[in-house]
Known about the structure:
Helices cover about 45% and strands about 15% of the residues. The protein has helices at about 5-10, 20-25, 45-50, 90-100, 115-120, 130, 155-165, 175-190, 220-240, 260-265, 275-280, 285-300, 320-335, 340-345, 350-360, 360-370, 370-380, 395-415, 440-455, 510-525, 540-545, 550-555, and strands spanning about 30-35, 60-65, 75-80, 105-110, 125, 170-175, 200-205, 245-250, 270, 305-310, 420-425, 460-465, 475-480, 485-490, 495-500.
Amino acid sequence: MKKYISGLEKARSEYKPKLPNALKQGINSLILEKGALTTAEANKEDIQEMFPNLYGTPVITFGSGTAEIEHKTLNVGVILSGGQAPGGHNVIAGLFDALKEADSSNKLYGFLCGPSGIMEAKYIEFTPNYIDEYRNTGGFDIIGSGRTKLESEEHFMKTWETCKNLNISAVVVIGGDDSNTNAAMLGEFFMQKNAGIQVIGVPKTIDGDLKNEAIETSFGFDTATKVYSELIGNIQRDANSAKKYWHFIKLMGRSASHIALECSLKTQPNITIISEEVEQNKTSLSEIVDYICDIVAKRAEQSMNFGVVLIPEGLIEFIPEMKCLICNLNDALAHIEQDDVYASLCGWDEKIAYVKGKLEHSNSEVFSSLPLDIQIQLLLDRDPHGNVQVSRIETEMLLSEMVEKKLGQMKKAGTYKGKFSTQSHFFGYEGRCAAPSNFDADYCYSLGYNAFALVKFGLSGYISSVKNLTAPASEWIAGGIPLTSMMNMEKRHGKFKPVIKKALVELNGEPFKKLQAHRDEWAVEDCYLSPGPVQYFGPAEVADITTETIQLEQAKVKVKI
């Protein structure tokens, strides 16, 4: 099928991603340097018992030189797993280029539609012309992605069979924390079976919660937050022009608030809610509403009946009483749905009243305080396990409706005299498939090239690591860390399982400290920034600059208080 490209894609196809100096010398001019032996993030004995072959291996760094490695032809398979993130195509391009540079007879197979592709042996063999069509473009449409998990003996056996049929000696899994956890499980399986098949991971997620000292950021976070920040900046300018709407904007980030924090630092909105702060302070839903109402009232006193509120997607799960309510609802609904009385009820008023009677008193009160459409949403949207689908709760609508109700009460009491009209937004999919920024284009290409270097040196159970990211790309440090070093045990669906630990916003970290230092000023004054669209051309200080988060974490920007 002919692939149609835009003018920007045509221009971007000519962009040559930058590599760290060590990798720039060529895939056949690398030496491997071993660092400290690793353990695990937590639950060390449990992780070691589950991964006896992968546990305790050293950190790896690549330098320039010539290593004596037995030459052999390598066939490699690659999988895109989970949600899309800008730059995935460049990971594959970097992997392909390194593989072909090492030996033109090497082959790269792309498994279609995620992990299910390798189990079902659905694949394509990449060619130079095919790869060239996707360089520096957004999306995962080069082979598609999927959310099937490689986690059972049956899955691993099917994967092994496919690899044997294609003579594949290494599998590269491009994914987030869950996908890379499964990559480690697959790698351990292959080692136990003496299959001779390596497994290498690549850190992907726009949420930004796959990070540590060696993984300074996951790819796609830079581009996605720039896209969202452009939209937020546009909305802020519109709000400041029309001067009549409060915009409630929910941002993707189910488990962590990195996106909301980064976008806040880029755009300086009036209010930014950080889930991790809410959880630490045990802030109630009513207290969040009161906080927003207080700022709305203060701005109204200055005749500023407009503003912008940023809300993380996963906020609800961090509010103590909402977490208790959802847990209680999950248990109650499991029994209610088998109840003939509930099935015979007509209309939502009767059903809601019945459910309230089955909840603990405190949870029933919280449920009663929610707007009707949110109550219905909690009862309707269930996952295959029968649990409330928290990610589908329209938190932006919930807060705007509760704020409006509270302001109405304040107006009757004479403590608020402004006008309050709202617009609600959810920015998620808008940022997942954008054309990667120069940073993500370079970073992803380096991650892919580096992933093959790990394969070439015979390593398995590692994740591709490129760090020192606030420096020019030439000074980036390439290497890898064991996947098991990022793991701990967590309870999933009632059972403890090994998982890569999610990195939440650190409240003692420099990025949050900057927000904390300025949030009172941004609340009542119009300090809005409009960062504009992603810049692909121009001076490095404009086109290649990375996130506020990384710059602050790496102490390249000083917090002004």
